[in-house]
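Please review this pair:
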Amino acid sequence: MQWGRCIVWVLSGWLGMTAGQCAELKLTLNEFLARVLTNNENIQMKMLEVQISRKQYEAQKGLFEPAWVTTATHEDRRNALTEEQKRNLFFATLFNERNNRYDSSVEMITPSGAKVQLGYRLNELRNNLNQANFPDGEYLSTLSLAITQPLLKDFGYAATLANLRAAAINSDITFQEYRKALIEIVARAEAAYWDVYLAQQQYAFSTDSVAVAQTLLADNQAKLAVGKGSELDVLQAEAGLAQRQALANEARQKLYEAANRTMIFCSSSVLGPHDRLVAVDEPPVGPMTSDTLYFRTLADQLNPDALALKHQLALDGVRINFAKNQRLPQLDLKASYGSSDINPNYQGIWRNIEAHDYPAWMLGLELRIPLGGNIKARKELDAARLRRQNTLLAMQSLRVQLDNLIDAAHKTADSYYDNIQRYAKVVDFNQNLLKSQLDRLEVGKTDSRTVLETEQDLFEARLGLVQSKVRFKRAVLDLEQSVGMVLQARNLELSQSDLAHRTRALMRSGRVTPQAFAEFLEQVQREFELRRQSAPPIPPATLPPRQP
């Protein structure tokens, strides 16, 4: 009860604020994490980065989008007459022409790499050669289908879809980066929550020690006043009280610092009005029921760095295959088929096209070979292979790191769990001993120094017990973070499609407004609360193996 009143003092009076200006904010761990997920800007930025990469992937699908291309040109030329033109233009010395050209086509690329163009061309020809017979000019129209199919370089699905596949894999990598950031923030936020709990307990123990020293000093002063005590006992009690008051001040400062650190994760500033966090939950304690090998196997399935490197290895494979294709010579098969008509009457230009009276077709090959041995493609292939080797080395290095981190965290948690059992016995012993020493002091069978030493032992044992609990929880957090199971253990794991569904509505309007983003964050918090209520968090040390 005493330490509860002290917490109120720390969170309001010590900062010079009234209770109305700075109220207690009692939160469970789940409630605190819900605020972190809603307010932390780093999480919000990572969520948007995932959506950005998703949009970039979807943008690559536009490669196969048909395009309508249309042009209109006017040309006015004067040329010297050729011999053929001289025979047709008896008195002219120049060939004058004024032509209008209109081209319209639909173009697209197929997954095989072929470029397809379906086009229509209309030429309005006016010159001094045809003006005698056709004063309004002539109309030349052509309808054609042209295909250019690469046979070596840029041939096939692997080459054509390389950028699309790379964008999809980059989207997966970005999602794992989001998971990593979320895991780190949740782990650090929870560790900060337990730091507040530890600081609360330490301050509570300090105030209890001060209360014992004050009681002891008052008793010794009363005994001295009636001639039953000594000045030495009073001095010892005063020194003990001063020492404990100094420790209480230090504990109060630690509590202030710990409470301020938690605000960072909720994006709150100490400069504005805010409530002070009071940690309601105690760190859960339990034996580690799974061995290191189980957690190491689970890390291959959940660790974001491991999953990102797997995606990176797949991306390297796409780049290598594309680079190999680009090393080939450029050999294209070109084919076209069309029908044309020329008519002085615009209304009749489709007559011969529909009848196919004047068909035309073309079939050919075009070969392009770099004379320097295709330096660019060869060097890009070398770079792609080196990049894959670098990824393999990174995967090997990560495996070693995870082996050591998981083993160290597992053993640390086991060690602190053992300390918890031992400190609990020490606390129980010192509590009984302090009670006995106080009874002995009443009848004059011991002195103040012995009582203060016993109380100091009890303080250290109680603090050691709480510190061991918090350090055990920190070791479990380190283990969960190394494995990548922080989100799964707290029922916060999201699939990439779930995250895309969350942000799709936000991006639907094409512009993110403050109001839309605030509504989006409220939806995130509601969904988190539903997840928490429907499936309470699984104790991390007893998480069952994943089903294949």
About this structure: The beta strands are 24-27, 67-80, 94-109, 115-127, 138-150, 276-279, 330-343, 359-368.
